[in-house]
Amino acid sequence: MSRPARRAARRAAPLRPGPGPEPGPALRFGFRFPDRPAPAARPVRALLLLVLALLVPSAGCTGRPADAPRAKAEAEAEVRRAVADWAAGGGGRPAGVPLESWAYEVRSVRVTVTDAGTGATAGADLRYRLAGHDGAPAGGARELTLAERDGHWRVEADRPAPGALPELWDQGPVEAVRGRYALVLGTGPRERLTGIAAAADAAVPAVAAAWPSGPPGTSGGTPWSGRAVLLVPGSADRMAALLGSAPGAYRGMAAVTTGRVGASPAPADRVVVNPDAYAELGEEGRRIVLTHEITHVATRPVTSASTPMWLSEGLADWVAYRGSGRTPPDIAPATARAVRTGRVPAALPANGAFAFGGDQEALSRAYEESWLACRTIAARWGEQALLRLYTAAAREPLPEALSHTLHTDLPTLTTAWQQSLRTDLPD
Q1: Which of 275, 303, 331 is the C-terminal boundary of a domain?
Q2: Cα separations (Å) of 156 from 56, 122, 146?
């Protein structure tokens, strides 16, 4: 593999938290049967006359104070029912995307009356599941624009709410490619999506072999679907927009994984592929990148905010390079250079070492050192012990997890890791 390929493969990004639902009451509107015909739009009846009378001042008279709140509530109810009818008929549903469910939870309605007419803005949470893949809903906050025409409310626009992340189909028409284990959704050429689906289909069994399903604390694994969803935007800048980052933030980074840590029973994770950086990789580099990211998908239910980054990223690389036959100096060149000049790290990488946008050599060392730490654990204490440590570290402090699973402490682990750096990365 070329140095750029190794660099891109090592830069599989840390886990990014996905957006969660906002707290508070909500009304759920949606459908599960895409062939159901859309109901007829509901007439606004004489309600708008009352709204106009009460909301628009007229010379010499005003509506009774008690009527205004009631009229406002009735107008909002009409808007909510219009959204319900629109959603039940498949409104907003992207063509070509295999969906098990699609629903909007309307949380707020604002009716406006101007000289141009009567309109409304509805704040809603979109919740959907991809058929055969999502164990929990995905989605985000949306803003719906409605207009009243000829006595009927109609939804005219559906866009991300201010500050919310867009969906892939907000960037253009989406194609879906189904593999044996993977579903790839993308806005680019179908040939590109087909190739990514094939690479993901090869990565999923490799992850399953290293992280088997089973009760946490036995094999170290936890049940997962053995499937993956990959999103492929049209460019690196569109990837950044999809993830709420500035243009250029993900250039040179082949893929990232999004989702909520500690989700149960199965989070709706997405592997987001940077088509520009991915295209620069060879076959082996692509396999390593996707195996790394899909490991994050498999381990997500037993990953928490307390899981050290070195353990999360190190395990993903350990799975990706497992059985590759590659040597430590080849996989960890930046760390090898440091060790040869006497710069053996004093401690395992801190979480802050994985921040992007800084020293790229230091970032490479953080990933490499983490892989070498997991490699050391697997070699000295056993592969199953490494998996048990990962599971335990999500629910208790690292010193306690080390004591319970490896029967050791952090200084002993650090010393063993440092010794492996000196012996496995020769001059």
Answers
A1: 303
A2: 24, 11, 5
